[in-house]
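Before our next group meeting I need something from you. Please put the record directly below this note.
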Amino acid sequence: MSLASEYEPEARSSPASCATPFVFVVDDDISVRESLELLIRHQGWQPETFASAQEFLVRPRVDGPSCLILDVNLPDLNGLDLQTRVIDRSDMPIIFITGFGDIPMTVQAMKAGAVEFLTKPFNHDVLLKAIKHAIDRSQRALAQEAELRAIREDYGSLTRREQEVMALVVAGLLNKQVGGELGISEITVKAHRGRVMRKMKADSLPDLVNVAARIGIVPLAKR
């Protein structure tokens, strides 16, 4: 089998996504761990192997793209149980592997967000494609998280009055109406609105509405 360069991780622009992706392997079979470690390292990714779910859970989260290759049948805490423990980690997609599986097990794993469910022995090319897909998904999730952090920081830079103006503007009120709501002049509203647009890096009102929605700002109802 040829381990072609087609599976090499792609470079991305953000600092986190430019880091070498981690591929975690949790399997109680040492021969599987050693085989996958060599395969993963050969592709330029960073492998880390664990013999149990508990061993993996004490490992600190990484600040960069990653994915998890997870055996279903593990001692103490099984793979499906571990999946529920890390369900909030959208930046670490899961690829399940198992010596024997059934349809209900596969459906449960996929409904909970797994990107692939492979039965041993599996083709290495299939696994590498799954890893590539998982890493791409991890990079997208990290990029979205970084964008949201930046938007929240921008919003945090607004004064209280600017935040009030923004809430009314995204609700669809005109400058004159905003002024009436806040007891300030229309000229003052325009000045605040201009600063809001600059600080929030919005080129238009639809941009501002979209940014507000992404950070959970619920527009006030028109009066």
